[in-house]
Here is the input.
Amino acid sequence: MKLCVVGTGYVGLVAGTCFAESGNDVICVDVDAGKIGALQHGEVPIYEPGLEELIKRNVSQKRLTFQTDLPDAVRRSDICFIAVGTPQGTNGEADLSAVMAVAGAIGDAMNGYKVIVDKSTVPVGTAARVSEAVRGRTAHPFDVVSNPEFLKEGAAIEDFQKPDRVVIGHTGERARRIMEELYKPFVRTGNPILFMSPESAEMTKYAANAMLAARISLINEIANLCDAMGSDVEDVRRGVGLDRRIGSAFLFPGVGYGGSCFPKDVKALITMADTHDVPSDVLRAVDQINSAQKRLLFEKVLRHFDGRLRGRCIAVWGLSFKPRTDDMREAPSVTIIEALLGAGAQVQAHDPVALDAARRLFGDRIHYFDVSYDALKGADAVLIVTEWPEFKQPDFPRMKELMRQPVIFDGRNLYELAAMRALGFTYCAVGRPPVRQQ
Ligand SMILES: NC(=O)c1ccc[n+]([C@@H]2O[C@H](COP(=O)([O-])OP(=O)(O)OC[C@H]3O[C@@H](n4cnc5c(N)ncnc54)[C@H](O)[C@@H]3O)[C@@H](O)[C@H]2O)c1
Here is the structure.
């Protein structure tokens, strides 16, 4: 099939590349000429495991191309994906300006029947709005389909190629058949394509993110209770997760969720509820708990140093909002580092891939280290903020040797309490009894 994907961010670039990998001709389009120029020169603007290799292969096979010319891409395509950003608007709602601009531009460029697919996360009713916008600009026939994306950054290729399910919200039979054909290679192991109305598909995406965010906020609240009452949330988490009705995924306490999706999607759902006068008490609590949780590690640090952080040197391991990505949008590390800087601390940061993204955010306000251990030199404490695999079994004696004081604040509960005690660290994690050296 011939398709274009408008928006070459984390979703559009992965989707376009994976569709090319299954044999389709794909044109990736973006307004960002710098990004398109880089892609045309073989540079991948984001870090996503496996993506670069897949792009190279499909570019060399001439199935995957990049351009800024949207009308040309639309004219040469039968299916047009909209995968542009839908950031948080001023009142918490999803900002649809990019989606609607692209819809209008597709309408203007139409030269025959097209399936127009909303892949961006968009509020209920957007497929109908896109339809209306396109209809106002062309006499050619078309169908608008809602096809929300469930990939996780850091495992995006695997998720896209082996989805748990594909959700297609459609109204016409013709579009349904085309989408079924397009997704056939991705559902060969029996994982289903679910067909539903566009309104249900749009809500499914928000509901999925809200459920996941709620699990995180609930386990974080339980962790804070454990902290106050002397339980170890790691034991509690295991005890709860083995209950088949509950399950163990997404039940890791920590420094709160971040990223470009959960925070804005929970807020957008709250705004949808407000618009329709429907109470959203759980969603509001999920959001509030998360905002507080992002400050938790900083508050522990502040207490440990009796409220005096001026002149202290604090190392931070992990900046991206989760491992295996360089994405720092809404990352807890940003809240934590801003708070540390605000309290007068000096910050020495390391991340395996997100240092460039961090430099764009913090400039010369913090110090950056390519090697994790270098960030520890002279530090009064180290904060583990992202659970990168390489932080799971570090060389503890070397850490101790490098640091001014052997103090670890672990926002991801990576280490054993007994081991920390034996190694001589002061160790504060989330929802676990602290280890203090006498
Ligand atoms: N990132 C994720 O993990 C993820 C997962 C599932 C769904 N989503 C949703 O997918 C959508 C895209 O997310 P993302 O993370 O890929 O965003 P992103 O910010 O990484 O990328 C968006 C891209 O769209 C481009 N763009 C903006 N306006 C444009 C226009 N008018 N014409 C052409 N290109 C334009 C931008 O230049 C950018 O490259 C959002 O709605 C998001 O909520 C994201």
